[in-house]
Design goal:
Helix 10 crosses helix 15. The longest helix is centred in the last third of the chain and has 32 residues. The chain is of the alpha/beta class. The protein has a five-stranded parallel sheet with strand order 2-3-1-4-5. Strand 2, helix 3 and strand 3 form a beta-alpha-beta unit. The protein has a single domain, classed as P-loop containing nucleotide triphosphate hydrolases (Rossmann fold, 3-Layer(aba) Sandwich), CATH 3.40.50. The protein contains 15 helices and five strands.
């Protein structure tokens, strides 16, 4: 371990890394990303609701996902969230919103991230699942049914063959299929600058929003770390999260699980990663921030024990 690394470790401070203290209202805004395991988080919130005397506001769960909101839509949503009682949790697939722009009190922002390529692959097969399509056709009974070939399409072949659905071209704004390939978009916001795929400018905006506003951006890839940080940095809402997760693991982790996703060949994933470089930069940034928050907790505990002894 280098002296520089030791210095950075010693300077980690849980208080300084905790944006919960910067919130103006005791309300969580979970602007959940697509295919990051948000259904598992919702299931956990269902368990935490009575345990911590929370109010889960469910209207956002009924809304369709929009790529961008107009300014008046952002303002309307921000006003709605700002009026919730303390202890409320609002959940919606929606991009980051700047409450300060509308001179409204800032909530506690949280979200999750996932490996960018794994997310896209998961969405590809989720879009073809009987569960999703049953819901979709129930909402839109007149929508044309896709041909059987589309449901059977192999992802490996889709990427290798140059099928437009599986091409991930940097800086494109309009995609052949809506597959939420821009994980960063949920953190960047509604500006047109956030739309180009794998854009370094969009990634930088997303990073700034995370660093300034988000209390915790977790990941189910590191469940223990994520739940420890949530419990410690947002205790009002996440007290007992690890205990409840352990008790209800099967139900929480199996909710909306994609069981149809087959094995994807390593060379196909590698082909994709070359076009997700900046999305990986953002993903790694969020993971490193999560680890810093976790390490700060442990370092602070060691420091406290040393003082007591």
């Amino acid at each position: 371990m280098t002296l520089t690394t030791l210095f950075h470790l010693k300077t980690l401070n849980a208080y300084g890394l905790n944006n919960t203290r910067k919130a103006d209202i005791d309300v969580i805004f979970f602007n959940r990303g697509a295919k990051v395991g948000s259904e598992s988080m919702i299931e956990l919130f269902d368990k935490l609701e009575s345990f911590n005397n929370l109010v889960i506001e469910r209207e956002g769960l009924k809304k369709g996902t929009k790529r961008q909101l107009k300014m008046w839509e952002q303002r309307e949503l921000a006003i709605n969230i700002s009026q919730f009682a303390d202890g409320s949790v609002y959940i919606e697939h929606v991009n980051w919103i700047d409450f300060e722009e509308f001179e409204l009190p800032k909530p506690i922002y949280i979200n999750l991230v996932r490996d960018p390529v794994e997310r896209v692959i998961s969405w590809y097969y989720y879009a073809r699942s009987a569960y999703k399509n049953a819901i979709e056709y129930d909402k839109f009974p007149d929508k044309p049914i896709r041909p059987a070939e589309w449901y059977k399409k192999d992802f490996n072949h889709c990427v290798r063959s140059g099928d437009p659905e599986c091409q991930y071209v940097p800086y494109t704004v309009n995609d052949f299929a809506g597959d939420f390939r821009r994980q960063s978009l949920f953190f960047c916001g509604h500006s047109d600058d956030c739309l180009p795929f794998n854009s370094p400018a969009a990634i930088q905006l997303a990073k700034e929003n995370v660093e300034r506003d988000y209390a915790v951006v977790g990941s189910w890839e590191d469940t223990n770390v994520t739940l420890t940080v949530f419990e410690s940095y947002i205790p009002r809402f996440f007290n007992g999260a690890k205990l409840l997760f352990d008790i209800h693991t099967d139900k929480i982790t199996n909710r909306n699980k994609n069981r149809r996703k087959p094995k994807i060949d390593p060379d196909v994933k590698e082909m994709m990663r070359r076009n997700f470089t900046n999305e990986y930069d953002f993903y790694n940034f969020c993971k490193q921030r999560l680890y810093k928050q976790y390490l700060a907790l442990n370092l602070n505990k060691v420091s406290l024990m040393q003082q007591l002894n």
